[in-house]
Specification:
There is one protein chain. Helices cover 43% and strands 20% of the residues. The chain starts with a strand and ends with a helix. Helix 1 packs parallel to helix 8 and helix 2 runs parallel beside helix 5. Strands 1, 2, 3, 4, 5, 6, 7 and 8 form an eight-stranded mixed β-sheet that branches. It contains eight helices and eight strands.
């Protein structure tokens, strides 16, 4: 059985289309990802997968590009076999991403992959990654976007709308981010069709 960990419920909804998989989303971040991965191991997972959207660090990556590992899985889903850095807080600005790219050498960034990898390693299980680029290396994520996700990984659009009353200057950046997220989620849906 494949145990799939996501940080967002919308990612989990897509991952549930993978046959013979158990999907668990406890919310974003490495601590919750570790807890989810351990729970999936207890449920009998023999493979652990980190699945969802990611931020681009490599300027060559654009929204909707897939990154995956290992290489054979990357070929199956039409992805680039790349490495992913994991952070506890989102990389919000092009400067943050450039520094992380230089320091880590990784092509993309998320908040869950390393924790899932660590659990797989601790239990001597196979580990896989399927991630789609959402925000690119040049994108700034407005602070208000973080209010749009609950601690459990659920979308909260009303929180964002309320925040825009005090920060209307973030509208354009949020619209761009929303379009990029839609593109990334569609790429994940296409990847899942190959995994079926």
């Amino acid at each position: 059985m494949i145990g799939i960990v996501t940080g967002l419920q919308v990612e989990a909804d897509i991952a549930r289309l993978v046959p013979n998989a158990q999907v668990l989303c406890l919310g974003p971040g490495p601590i919750k990802a570790l807890q989810a991965a351990e729970a999936l191991v207890e449920q009998g997972a023999t493979i652990l997968m980190s699945f969802g959207i990611a931020g681009g660090l490599d300027p060559a990556l654009k929204a909707g590009d897939l990154v995956a590992a290992p290489a054979d899985l990357a070929r199956r889903v039409g992805a680039k076999a790349e490495t992913i850095a994991t952070v506890t807080d989102p990389a919000m600005t092009p400067r943050d991403k450039a520094l992380l790219y230089k320091r880590s050498g990784c092509s993309a960034v998320d908040m869950e992959t390393s924790a899932v990898r660590d659990v797989a390693s601790a239990h001597a299980l196979a580990f896989q990654i399927v991630r789609a680029i959402c925000d690119t290396a040049d994108d700034t994520i407005p602070e208000i976007a973080l209010k749009g996700v609950s601690p459990a990984g659920e979308t909260r659009p009303m929180r964002v709308a309320a925040g825009l009353l005090t920060r209307p200057q973030d509208v354009a950046a949020l619209m761009t981010l929303g379009k990029r997220q839609k593109t990334a989620l569609e790429a994940l849906r296409l990847a899942v069709k190959v995994l079926r």
